[in-house]
Amino acid sequence: MPDWDHPPKRVVSLVPSITESLFALGFGESLVGVTDYCTQPAGQLSALMRVGGPKTPNLDVIEELKPDLVIGGWEETAKERVEALSQRGLRVLLVFPKTVDDSVDLLRQILALYHTDKRVEQVNGLQVAVDYARTAADSLQPVRYFCPIWFDQHEGIDWWMAFNQDTYMDDLLHLFGGENIFANRERLYPIEADLGKGRPEPADGRDTRYPRVTAGEVIAAQPELILLPDDPYKFTDSDRAALEHALAATPAVRNRKVFFIDGSLLAWYGVRLGQALRVLPEFFT
Q1: Which has the higher per-residue pLDDT, 118 or 152?
Q2: Is the pLDDT of residue 246 over 60?
Q3: First vs last C-alpha separation in the chain
Q4: CATH 3.40.50.1980, the chain: domain bounds
Q5: Longest dimension (CA), the chain
Q6: Domain 143-266 carries which CATH code?
Q7: What's the CA dihedral at 17, 20, 23, 25 to 10 degrees?
Q8: What is the rounded distance in angstroms from the CA atom of residue 242 to the CA atom of residue 251?
Q9: By percentage, how much of the chain surpasses pLDDT 70?
């Protein structure tokens, strides 16, 4: 993160977890615009301009706000929108933590960006909690898990989207003794190849961290735990029933270890990590 001479005074956040983190670190007053998906902290965003979704924000609305900084996500914000904002003379900062330690470091970088250490003890406390969780996990028996983040069909084939070891979610759940059954599985292109129905072609720079997997793959991997988040795909009771039917031959279903979880605990880096450290370990005991 660049070390600018002066802290930003007018910020547009295109990342919900960054919006939450800026408020938690005491910088909420610098925000002038947030996305339609920014929901936290509840009750403190009503006065802020909504600029659209994280992927394709409204460039004209952002420009009218005259921000001295726009914070986007490398994964979330479309590359062409970032380039367009830069071409309009706006300063854009992209964040992309891929590990738990990256998430804590990002908070330290935000403090540096605002030229203050007034919340450094808060961030250091979060690091202590991470280190404690990591040490505690060393004495635990690993738990093999499956955590789909999307569900769909292709030509009559049901598939779930998983994530591999190059993601923040994998590193977070590893912190509690979780062993991702698709840690080494890369996404293949086109989708027919990903579903085992065709030959793969070169990825050519496309993201390979989120494979689409079939029931057969999940059953073969024999997960002991299945977690169903409510974001980005909101798994419902009917989704759970269908999944349990399709994956009845797994230990997770046989032992009734299929649970709904708050998706923000998995995907929101930043201060939300503190809540994840309190809530998620219970699923792996």
Answers
A1: 152
A2: yes
A3: 37
A4: 7-96, 143-266
A5: 59
A6: 3.40.50.1980
A7: -50
A8: 16
A9: 99
Beta bridge partners of 189: 201
Q: Which residues pair with 161 in a beta bridge?
A: 150, 212
Give the CATH architecture of domain 7-96.
3-Layer(aba) Sandwich (3.40)
Measured distance CA(90)–CA(245) in Å, rounded: 51
For residue range 12-39, what is the model confidence (pLDDT) as tens digits? 999 999 999 999 999 999 999 999 999 9
Asked if residue 7 has a cis previous peptide bond (ω within 30° of 0), the answer is no
112: its two tokens: 């540096």
Q: What is the pTM of this model?
A: 0.93
